[in-house]
Specification:
single chain, alpha/beta, three-stranded parallel β-sheet, 30% helix, flat
């Protein structure tokens, strides 16, 4: 299955702003420009926060935040809201 581009421009169409949007994926290919992926660069340009799901800690060199699973992402979001 080929990676598909994330429609960043469509966020405005559904009234989502970058501050309240999290890009979470499990394909490190989306990080690697040599593999045709430019999603991380595009996400950052759009002001989105990006998290790579990395359950086995395979992608420690990834240039973005990583989490083991969606539950960990949820815990981080809740903790950041409590701290704020």
């Amino acid at each position: 299955m080929a990676a598909r581009s994330v429609p960043f421009a469509q966020l405005e169409a559904v009234f989502l702003d970058a501050w309240n949007t999290l890009l979470c994926w499990d394909s490190p290919r989306l990080l690697d420009p040599r593999a045709g992926g430019s999603e991380l660069r595009r996400a950052r340009a759009a002001g989105l926060h990006a998290v790579l799901l990395d359950p086995f800690d395979d992608w420690s060199e990834a240039d973005c935040e990583r989490a083991r699973d969606v539950a960990e992402v949820s815990r981080r979001i809740l903790a950041s809201r409590v701290a704020a």
